[in-house]
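Table 4 source record.
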Amino acid sequence: MSETGAKQYLIDAYYRMLERLKNSLDSASEKATPVIEQAISQAQEAATELGELSREEAERISQYLRRDIEDAAMFLNESGTELKDWLKFDLQMVEQHLAEIFRDSVDHTRLALTQLAQHANKLGEWRTGEITGIGTLQCKSCGESLNFHRISRIPPCPKCHNTTFRRQSTKQQ
């Protein structure tokens, strides 16, 4: 598989796992934290069982998905603002279907994610080569902002070539 094909393969896997997470959460009870963990695990297992990903790849994509969902939920809980504020750009710029899935997944997690939000604070770091969902990352070295309008692999900072980032929120402006 070419490098470009391998990148798209993992991005597509993130998207499918996000869809499975949303579908699981749509039918979940209000016990959000264990349900979210179970839904992510089920999406991960499905990707492996269907032969879409190796166990290692599925685990890595699950970690990326968990990190992004936790980060969005933490921002929404702390700020009381809308998802579009976390994304830092107009949702119309994002593929409509992806925006709906992501918004629904975040809405299901928003109220009961205090523990996961604290965990996300500890993780709080995105690295070049990882896959991230929609939103804005800020270079930890020079402060340059990278906007992601679709699920993407994180490149090095275009300004300083640093490889570590944090989620940029409206509080950091």
